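Methods — Computational structure assignment.
A single polypeptide chain was analysed. Its primary sequence is given first, followed by the predicted tertiary structure written as structure tokens.
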Amino acid sequence: MSTQQIIFHHYPQSPVSEKVRIIFGMKNLTWKSVLIPRLPPKTNLTPLTGGYRLTPVMQIGADIYCDTKCIIQELEHRFPTPNFFPDHLSCGLGQWTDGPLFKDVVTVALVEMSPNMPPEFLADRGPLYFGPDFSLDDIKAKYNESLSNIRTQFGWIDKTLQSRDFLNGPNSGLSDALVYYLLWFLRDRLLKDNPFLQQFPNLMEWAERIDTIGHGTSDDMSDLDALEIARKAQPQTPEQEDPLDPFGLQVGEKIAISPVAGGPKVEGALHHLCADRMTLLREDEQVGQVCVHFPRLGYRVERTSDKQE
């Protein structure tokens, strides 16, 4: 198997996974699809990630990429054609679409899903998106406000698409993927002919153009096969320090990384550091040595001890 072979751990209904799947299509990539549970525990993913619980995760050999910011950056590095970063401010767009707009879309989607939602799913996702003290009644009370917010923001995008095929011009790119996955998620809950969505004709036509791009070429792979691939591989990421790091972190220090929004800590030895990324070197009895990559933005780091001996 090629050292560049993409193994993607996801599940079909995941909107954040759809963001990456459409990028696979835009870059015409071939990838292996490993389906993971929608709810913890994710027994055969944990050896790779060290306990990171969010979806999706990308694996290339013994290098494991967590969070779509990190995944997209790595895809652009390995597969630079077509170029997804005509300007790096496109990355900043994700702070809006993955932040305030995402929160509004999730609020509306959860309310729409709630009549048929399994209680264990709500019990898992509610604290993840809305904090430990969330209640479904509170979410329902914010439905109209969130729908109004989406209407305003989708209106901006609809006007942008009046005179162009894609958000950055004639060709699809990162900006399209960062917006599309939210419409994809909401469209599945509100149905395509819903009057709310029909307010945005340019947006809906754009979404149909994105739909035709597809997801590249994928084949199924079992989670056990993915573990075996990691076990036989060696991490390909070199050591790197960042002399300008505000925390003064050094390669070899034992640290823990966790999402600012909440979630389990992943522990290991710092292996690679730059302004965009933190990489841990971890040992696991099932897969051996792996590098686990996280974005700097949106993640908290703390020292757990001195340098690894």
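Note: Residues 6-81+218-307 form a domain with the Glutaredoxin fold (CATH 3.40.30.110).
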